[in-house]
Design brief:
By secondary structure, this protein is α+β, with helices and mostly antiparallel strands. It is 39% helix and 25% strand.
Length: 513
């Protein structure tokens, strides 16, 4: 299936099976704003919980907070967002469409990457089991040339953005002969910066109201609470503060479904460390976060690190964990070594000391910060798009199945009476009552049992439990596994342990060890 077709299928499936709806759809919706539906809200919560358990519950030196969305406006002056939180935008004069200039260039490089992937697939088919991908991509002349071109383009883009040389960004777009995706025109305006923060007001009247911003990131709520948490929690460096929550950005070029939205949710952790130790902690968190991602079994080949060519002026290292979405490798999580910039800025603008007294060294210092930041909505899309597959079955039919990691699935089991009579629904409903104390389960009695299996496959439910007439005699049921379609006869009293063995968070997170 072509990638564009697969992505359209992802969007359609998300709506049809109650995962994601367009916000305010009856009023024709809002661009790049979405609602999580009955299944989507459960999947999203489960992803958030999976992150929280790994990040906070399993680490003795990391605690959580929930900072407010509204913050004093000086916060954003100190953080640099008022003066420098912007995207480079370019307009096409013929189509009147606006684009992020850097994304146009990145998309151009993605097309070259697609050529590399095509060469790799051809070679893999030609050489079969003897194929060595790593050796091929490093020695094949055509592939090496493609990769060198990508590296050269992205390096120049990064350097131009770092120097704020927007004229060179436009020159690069023109040299690459990048055309408007809508009109096919190369008639571009100059590149301009556009601030992404949403403004609002706080106060009883227009005359006395204070100008505020909806927070564009959750991290600043952690920095301004650094001393509060450190003192009340008696935290010793190194320690971390984590939080999840909504952030808001006025994305002019919002696109790709829930990948880039105006209202989104972040899962961030700021790790406070002794100056001079940032390199080892950077490597530690790179490795640890990649292990977390891989523990979900989405395919090791779907992840890669992308080191930043353009570093923020305060950072001394930055990398992204990229995931292979239907539209190519894109950023999923960022790991950044932020030095002491944030605490020093808030110290300067607030006039309050934000330092740590190290009892071992008998000295005060401003801690350095190692950040891990992941978009919850992007993680949702990564999991959902990876899970959606069409399978050819032995009887020449196909089934659509959403192979969500069982630990994240909205419903863990569907309880199905074979028929709606003879006391079978009563037994099925009693199983629901027993299991729902420990798991999200659902009851389904409509249609033939085969159709119900297919419906639960498409919903992503890991188990179907069928109550039949033999249940009346032996107190056993048939349990069917979503991924293998294997069916087994088991005792009703064993159901809880069977399901728990597959969906328990401990079972999944232990893969990180």
């Amino acid at each position: 299936m072509a990638n564009d077709d697969q992505f359209k299928k992802v969007i359609s499936h998300a709506k049809e099976y109650g995962y994601v709806f367009q916000s305010s759809e009856i009023y024709d919706g809002l661009s790049a704003v979405y609602d999580y539906a009955q299944n989507g809200v459960e999947l999203k919560k489960n992803i958030r919980d999976y992150w929280w358990k790994a990040m906070v519950q399993m680490n003795d030196n990391i605690v959580g907070i929930d900072a407010s969305i509204f913050m004093h406006p000086t916060t954003w002056k100190a953080s640099g967002h008022v003066d420098a939180f912007s995207d480079p935008l370019i307009d096409n004069k013929d189509s009147k469409k606006r684009y992020r200039a850097d994304v146009l260039v990145e998309d151009y490089c993605a097309k070259i990457e697609a050529k590399i992937e095509k060469e790799v697939k051809k070679a893999a088919k030609r050489f079969g089991d003897a194929f060595n991908k790593e050796e091929f991509v490093s020695t094949n002349g055509r592939v090496v040339g493609y990769q060198e071109k990508i590296d050269s383009i992205l390096k120049r883009l990064g350097q131009s953005l770092e120097k704020e040389d927007l004229a060179d960004v436009k020159a690069l777009i023109e040299e690459l002969e990048i055309a408007c995706p809508v009109a096919g025109s190369r008639n571009w305006t100059d590149v301009k910066q556009f601030n992404l923060m949403f403004g609002t007001k706080l106060g009883a009247s227009a005359e006395t109201a204070m100008d505020l911003y909806l927070r564009p990131e959750t991290a600043q709520g952690i920095f301004v609470n650094f001393l509060n948490v450190q003192k009340t929690g008696r935290m010793k460096i190194p320690f971390g503060i984590a939080q999840t929550g909504k952030a808001f950005r006025n994305e002019i070029v919002a696109r790709q479904f829930i990948f880039r939205m105006r209202e989104f949710e972040q899962m961030e952790m700021q790790f406070f460390i002794k100056p001079g130790t940032q390199k080892e902690w950077f490597e530690y968190w790179k490795e640890t976060r990649l292990k977390w991602h891989k523990s979900l079994g989405l395919g090791d080949e779907n992840y890669r690190f992308h080191d930043h060519e353009k570093l923020a002026h305060y950072a001394d290292a930055a990398t992204d964990i990229e995931f292979k979405f239907p539209f190519g490798f894109k950023e999923l999580e960022g790991i950044h070594s932020r030095t002491d910039f944030d605490l020093k800025q808030h110290e300067e603008f607030s006039g309050k000391k934000l330092q740590y007294f190290d009892h071992e060294d008998k000295a005060n210092y401003t801690p350095y910060v190692l950040e891990t930041s992941i978009g919850l909505d992007r993680m949702f899309l990564a999991v959902f798009s990876n899970a959606l597959v069409e399978e050819e079955l032995e009887n020449n039919t196909t089934r659509t199945v959403l192979k969500l990691p069982a630990v994240l699935a909205p419903n863990k089991a569907a309880i199905l009476p074979l028929v709606k009579k003879d006391g079978l629904p009563e037994i099925a409903k009693q199983i629901v009552e027993d299991l729902k104390w420990d798991f999200n389960v659902t009851y389904d009695e409509k249609d033939a049992v085969g159709r119900r299996y297919r419906r639960q496959d498409a919903n992503g439910t890991p188990f179907c439990i069928t109550v039949d007439h033999d249940t009346l005699e032996d107190n056993s049921v048939t349990i069917r596994h979503r991924d293998t379609m294997e069916q087994k006869r088991v005792k009703i009293e064993d159901l809880k342990e069977i399901i728990k063995a597959e969906v328990d968070v401990k079972h999944w997170l232990k893969k990180m060890k």
